[in-house]
Amino acid sequence: MIAYRLTFLMAGLCMGAWAPLVPFARSRAGIDDGALGLLLLCLGLGSLVMMPLAGVLNARRGCRFTMHVGIALVFLTLPLLATVHSFSGLVVTLMLFGAGCGTVDVTMNVQGVMVERATGRSLMSGFHGLFSLGTIVSAAVITGLLWLGATPLLASCAVLVALGAFVLTAGRQMLGRSGDAAGPVFARPSGNVLMLGILCLIAFLAEGAILDWSAVFLVQVRAVEPAVAGLGYAVFAVMMALGRLSGDRIVARLGPRTVLVGGGLIVMSGFVLVVFATNWLWNLVGFGVVGAGLANVAPVYLSLAGAQRTMPGELAIAAATSLGYLGILMGPAAIGLFAQLSSLSAALLAVASLMIAIIVSAARRVPTASRQRLH
Description:
CATH class of the largest domain: Mainly Alpha
Low-confidence stretches: 371-375
Number of helices: 16
CATH topology of the largest domain: Growth Hormone, Chain: A
Distance between the termini: 29 Å
Transmembrane segments: 35-57, 69-88, 94-115, 127-147, 153-171, 192-215, 227-247, 259-278, 284-304, 316-338, 344-363
CATH superfamily of the largest domain: MFS general substrate transporter like domains
Main location: membrane
Membrane topology: Multi-pass membrane protein
Largest sheet: none
Subcellular location: Membrane
Radius of gyration: 20 Å
CATH architecture of the largest domain: Up-down Bundle
Number of strands: 0
Helix content: over 70%
Number of domains: 2
Keywords: Membrane, Transmembrane, Transmembrane helix
Mean pLDDT: 85
């Protein structure tokens, strides 16, 4: 079980490594905000393109092989992200880095569902809690090393050492192939899987809204100093990690339906607190409430995607994850456009209103027991 949990922690380390390197990459390449936005889009596109293939690799070659492929891509590209000077070089490198992260992301979820099936227990929320913890640790360690005077390349080596140690030790204990080696390369998502993917998209869009717009909201709407505006996302991330680490017990006790309905209501209340509380400290509380409510939504949906029987579980998880990532790709631009047409506060309320889809669909179609299947 330690190896399975470390898989999610390592995936978080991969995802969190890029954020502290962004200002340095931008400075080396001498690019403006628009070009930086294109770079960030390349990261997401690389993940999105690789995720369906990762589902096939998991079915045919197993989690251990596929995870090692993803980590190898991160190994090859993370040092380049810390040293490449040209914009075109960063575009190619970020797409390959995103492909590695996407491969790792799909693989950790496939293995998580396999472990849930084998044990008959709800474990996905706790697994994703370790993923969230990994992103926080990775970003904090690299930031701390950079603050102490380390070069971006040297700072990123801390993550590479951890990944290498995992591959040589616990990574060998990951699960092998679970699917049909002669199975289809592509399977059209069933209606149930498509629905789960769209609901994942909403959850990821809400998460992306806090990631990309919480600091902007605090600076522009609440006149908070930019130096402390990052506290909004920090509080959100910590509460999400805590919520996920305790989520398995919550899901097992209350069931997926109650967790999704309650989570959606909590997210909506958090956004309302952010928008209507004029004191920025209460806004921080609101961001934390959103994180707590959102913590177990995506893990429950991914668990349901792997548990359904209308298409192979590995391909279903890849499809749901890919659709979810569209929320991260589309979210920043959609929220920005909405804010330009009205206001950032109205845009955040619009994101909150999307939780109604999660609440209604969960109340109608999601099972009450944690180990029942979505038919």
